[in-house]
């Protein structure tokens, strides 16, 4: 297929609507670093040059969607339904997560754990369990597995757990805010400033040296989560970093991480995918129907070399970032932006070694999203809706 050339900036983040669903959880977007800005431009140039048909189609559809207020209304309604989930919606959410898990496993086999030795019991870590669809799928496929699961308590705004935990004595579940698990992150109580607004809220160790084969990191910041005001600005980064640190530092060599991610071409995402590709096999998955109109997808990193130099260095960088983000009340946007570059790979290294793989994985994600957006009522023209090509 001959691809059309796109006008400059037509799929650039800078043109993204500030109120678009992808930004919904970050009320005021923190300042971009020079590094992130340069990486973003380099990615956009790279993709424009490569003329990837799926990406070009998606860019055109996104633009159409932003121009139509019905698109905003559509995503606002979805958010409202998610925030005010009654029992029926919660049940639907659980069934949906079951279906996504089953389909992901059908396509990739990642939920079926191959124990590293015949005597070892499979072990599953679920960072944000509720409603429990992924965990139920993984337990059905690995009935002898032990699981450690966390989830935000419903009284703090978290989702209800639909999985019948009483039927699973092999699951240890903790209802807590995982971003408060300071001891498991590797932060001592002496490192927590005495005047920190949450000084009494940080939690003791919950992991007890346990190591896991498979980790789910699909937490999502909820608008219903009641939290201290200092957390409003960078909550999505705080939640993602917490899940990544706790999972990578508690996985067995050769283990697998499944990470809910957004916008595969975004600079921080490209950086993350590349960094994982240095010590694991990285692939992506997107369901053809559920959340298909959104940019979300799952990164699957398997065969993780958790003891490799690259993994150890990355964990170290993440921990430094976590401490600044969570503990330093004087952290400025400028300083936070600078941290994106510290120890990070160069832009040339990322695109030279990973550009083609990024396009390969991106085509899967962009293709599904474009297909779904193309059929969305707020994208279809009047003519298409009425079935007439003339009007
Ligand atoms: C997309 S859902 C997870 C779906 C789930 N893994 C499944 O398979 O059914 C996102 C979850 O993140 C949880 N969450 C959000 N913020 C959290 C936090 N700070 N600590 C723990 N859980 C959190 C929410 O309560 C919600 O259950």
Automatic annotation (TrEMBL):
Record SUPFAM superfamilies: S-adenosyl-L-methionine-dependent methyltransferases
Chain positions covered by the region annotation Disordered: 1-35
InterPro entries: RNA_MeTrfase_FtsJ_dom, SAM-dependent_MTases_sf
GO biological process, one term: methylation
Protein name (Swiss-Prot/TrEMBL): Ribosomal RNA methyltransferase FtsJ domain-containing protein
GO molecular function ontology, one term from the record: methyltransferase activity
Gene3D superfamilies hit by this protein: Vaccinia Virus protein VP39
Organism: Aspergillus mulundensis
Annotated Ribosomal RNA methyltransferase FtsJ domain residues: 123-301
């Amino acid at each position: 297929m001959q691809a059309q050339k796109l006008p400059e900036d037509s799929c650039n983040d800078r043109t993204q609507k500030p109120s678009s669903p992808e930004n919904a959880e970050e009320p005021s977007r923190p300042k971009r670093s020079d590094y992130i800005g340069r990486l973003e431009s380099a990615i956009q140039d790279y993709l424009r040059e490569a003329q990837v048909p799926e990406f070009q189609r998606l860019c055109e559809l996104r633009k159409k969607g932003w121009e139509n207020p019905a698109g905003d209304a559509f995503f606002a309604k979805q958010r409202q339904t998610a925030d005010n989930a009654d029992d029926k919606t919660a049940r639907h959410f659980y069934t949906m997560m079951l279906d996504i898990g089953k389909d992901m496993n059908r396509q990739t086999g990642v939920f079926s754990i191959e124990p590293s030795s015949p005597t070892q019991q499979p072990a599953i870590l679920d960072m944000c369990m509720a409603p429990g669809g992924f965990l139920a799928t993984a337990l059905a496929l690995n009935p002898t597995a032990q699981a450690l699961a966390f989830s935000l308590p419903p009284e703090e705004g978290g989702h209800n757990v639909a999985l019948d935990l009483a039927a699973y004595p092999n699951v240890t579940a903790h209802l807590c805010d995982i971003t408060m698990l300071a001891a498991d992150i590797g932060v001592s109580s002496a490192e927590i400033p005495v005047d920190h607004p949450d000084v009494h809220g940080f939690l003791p160790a919950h992991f007890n040296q346990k190591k896991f084969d498979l980790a789910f990191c699909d937490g999502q910041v909820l608008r219903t989560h009641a939290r201290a005001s200092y957390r409003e600005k960078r909550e999505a980064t705080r939640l993602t970093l917490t899940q990544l640190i706790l999972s990578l530092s508690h996985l067995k060599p050769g283990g697998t991480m499944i990470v809910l991610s957004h916008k595969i071409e975004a600079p921080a995402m490209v950086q993350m995918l590349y960094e994982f590709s240095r010590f694991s096999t990285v692939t992506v998955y997107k369901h053809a129907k559920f959340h298909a109109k959104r940019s979300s997808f799952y990164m699957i990193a398997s065969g993780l070399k958790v003891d490799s130099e690259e993994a150890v260095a990355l964990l170290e960088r993440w921990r430094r970032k976590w401490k600044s983000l969570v503990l330093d009340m004087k952290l400025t946007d400028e300083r936070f932006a600078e941290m994106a570059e510290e120890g990070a790979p160069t832009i040339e290294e990322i695109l030279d070694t990973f550009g083609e793989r990024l396009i390969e994985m991106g085509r899967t994600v962009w293709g599904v999203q474009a297909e779904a957006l193309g059929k969305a009522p707020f994208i279809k023209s009047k003519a298409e809706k009425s079935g007439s090509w003339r009007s």
